Amino acid sequence: MPVEFDRVADIIAETASIPRDTITPESHVIDDLGIDSLDFLDIVFALDKEYGINIPFEDWMQKVNAGDAQASDYFIMKELVAKIDGLVQAKAG
Amino acid sequence: MLLEYFSMIDRIGVLDAPGGHVEAESVVPDASPVFEGHFPGHPLVPGVLLIETMAQASGYLVLARLNFSRMPFLAQVNEAKLRSFTTPGAKLTITADLLGDGQGYARTRASITSDGKKLADAELTFRVMDFPAEELRAQMLQRARAIGMPVLGSG
Question: Could you give the CA distance from residue B128 to residue B72 in angstroms, rounded to a whole number?
Fold first, then answer.
């Protein structure tokens, strides 16, 4: 079953105390929602628990910092949901 | 327990790294410079040091799970409760259980009890990072051996 945007958005809203209606598929988690790295750790914890995955947050940040990827590749909500879905599908085999 | 050196754990009694559980023991010293200010005539272990004590017990658990390859740094304290005064001479049992860990983080729930009475508890989150200095890793290994950690990494 694919990871649904609404469920991820609900988790982020609850974890980071953000009004749910401000989170859209185009929202940038950092720039638009104001989530910092510590808040994002909370979100990663919640998402790891929810989906039984291990989000490679450090790998993502290293790629962004090294210029090998754009922050928007991971932190635009629709991209984040797609990445989580990929991890869930990979785990399911 | 040497409060002024942030040496909070005297002994690791139980360590189940795969199961995510640790139990440690400490005895609050009868005298410490900390008590000169906190408080004159009414010595108490400061609450922040009780949180530090729970963080260190949790930290040894995380270090053991990672075989001392990376270092946990306290990043977040949730739902901390300081339930009773902790006084000189108190024998403390510090327990921590892993709630979850992933890439770059670990979270525990920890508590301190004395004579069966809960003194403090909290949920703690750590950033887990590469050791910023080999000296720190060596120091952590040395300290872990000194407090009797049954599982130690190489080095």
Answer: 4
